[in-house]
Design brief:
alpha+beta; two-stranded antiparallel ribbon; 4 strands
Length: 54
């Protein structure tokens, strides 16, 4: 997975992430499939923020 530099610090983060803000609307098997597919694609960043400020 491609990594990108975050801001002016030495932290590198994946270029892609899985957003799971509404994952609780899925069944457990649906959520497991989505998370496994994400992992299989090499994505290891899961954004679990509950909401975002405007």
């Amino acid at each position: 997975m491609k990594q990108i530099k975050m801001g002016c610090v030495t932290l590198n983060i994946p270029a892609m992430a899985l957003g799971i803000m509404r994952m609780n609307q899925k069944t457990v098997p649906e959520a497991q499939v989505a998370i496994q597919a994400t992992y299989d694609a090499g994505i290891n960043f899961i954004d679990s923020a509950g909401n975002y400020l405007p």
